[in-house]
Write a structure and sequence with these properties.
By secondary structure, the protein is mainly α. Helix content is about 90%, strand content about 0%. The N terminus is likely disordered.
């Protein structure tokens, strides 16, 4: 029997190689068309993708609220209102956070930037006068600058024209942004509505997705998909909850510390620090740099004190707060966190900086578990089979619940 099966296996392998080679040739030959089609498909599906992301973020506080919303009550009105109340409360909490950020940070930041733009020409002129006075006091300096073709008036005019170009670019960018606002609002509203439907029926959606995967995919592929989905969920959820908690504590520390030390903008810089702390490692430099510029306009001495204060806060946060609050939710060495932030930022900007850290963490967890399983050949069940059984059990619980509801009706 093996004599006849081997040619069949060889023929199937040859057919697979031919098909794969043909698809690879077509992909390379028509790469531009494939890429354009892919980008168009992503643009069409973007409201659904954003809606799923919003639902995932809202699900984190919603789950906590459901746990404290009359957890021991089995009344009909409690069951019917638990999900709507939890969704509404989660939305209110996130909207309050966004309002707090825009109310405290954006107006003062715009005001300080306007002040800098208005005062920089006078500041540049004063630097020019100071430089020219140095030339008069020290003739040797004038000779050196003359050899270098150093012209204060030319440098001043170039600096002022550069500032004017920045101002015009900001105005043009603002106008173009306003022009795209209508489309953004429509897509955002559509994504928001989709996220509400996803949250309202999340157990049913999970059951349907697991059922489709289990029915139409091979058992091994289904187990692997369930395994990767579970690892990704644990990594992203642990990262968001831990990082948000750590960022909130750090923002409060900065706000209280700056208020007690009589520094300007304590509330705004506290909120700014909390928001930028969501970006590992890079966020601390962003908050310190922006705060330094804001305070430097009023007092250069206080600006230097602010830098020293932020270094102390970052040491406390990095060595005490972050490891205890976030814990093993990331599980990545500092080098790989920086690599994840660099790659994510280069590909997708600030959202990429945030998302690629838990993505790398999940990838690291998958690789470590796979290595442990391959080294322990005596294991009776693989990691993906173990976690897929957990998800399968949860979907079966939902199925039993639906059957009981149908029997009651």
């Amino acid at each position: 029997m093996s004599f006849f099966r081997e040619p069949e296996k060889t023929e199937k392998s040859i057919i697979k190689i031919i098909l794969f080679s043909g698809l690879l040739f077509l992909l390379i030959r028509y790469f531009g068309n494939v890429l354009a089609t892919f980008n168009h498909l992503i643009a069409v599906l973007m409201p659904i993708i954003i809606g799923a992301a919003m639902a995932y973020i809202l699900n984190i506080p919603m789950t906590k609220i459901e746990e404290i919303y009359f957890p021991d009550r089995e009344d009909t009105w409690v069951k019917r209102t638990r999900r709507p109340v939890s969704i509404t409360t989660s939305i209110i909490v996130i909207l309050l956070f966004i309002f707090l950020v825009f109310y405290l940070v954006i107006p003062q930041l715009i005001g300080v930037i306007s002040m800098i733009i208005n005062t920089l020409p006078n500041f540049i002129m004063s630097i020019r006068d100071w430089g020219m006075s140095l030339e008069e006091r020290f003739p040797q300096l004038q000779e050196v600058l003359g050899q270098l073709n150093f012209n204060w008036n030319s440098i001043t005019q170039n600096a002022i024209s550069f500032l004017n170009s920045i101002t015009s670019n900001v105005i043009d960018g603002t106008i173009s942004t306003i022009g795209n606002t209508v489309g953004f609002i429509f897509n955002f509203f559509l994504s928001f509505v989709l996220s509400i439907f996803m949250l309202s029926n999340k157990e049913k959606l999970q059951y349907q997705l697991v059922l489709l995967s289990e029915t139409y995919l091979p058992s091994r592929l289904h187990n692997q998909i369930m395994y990767v989905a579970r690892i990704l969920n644990d990594s992203f959820k642990g990262f968001f909850v831990g990082t948000l908690t750590s960022a909130t504590i750090e923002g409060v520390m900065v706000a209280v510390g700056l208020f007690l030390l009589r520094f300007p903008y304590p509330a705004m810089l506290g909120v700014l620090t909390g928001v930028t702390a969501l970006i590992p490692y890079i966020g601390a430099f962003i908050a310190t740099g922006i705060g330094f510029m804001l305070i430097f306009v009023q007092s250069p001495i206080q600006a230097l004190g602010y830098v020293v204060f932020m270094i102390m806060v970052n040491q406390i946060e990095g060595n005490l707060l972050y490891p205890r609050v976030v814990g093993d939710s990331i599980g990545l060495p500092a080098l790989w966190v920086i690599v994840a932030v660099t790659i994510g930022g280069g590909l997708f900007g600030i959202p990429g900086m945030i998302l690629f850290v838990p993505l790398f963490s999940a990838l690291s967890a998958i690789i470590h578990r796979d290595i442990a399983y391959r080294r322990d050949r005596g294991a009776s069940i693989s990691p993906e089979q173990e976690l897929s059984e957990v998800m399968k059990n949860s979907s079966e619980l939902y199925r039993e619940k639906e059957v009981k509801n149908d029997e009651k009706n």
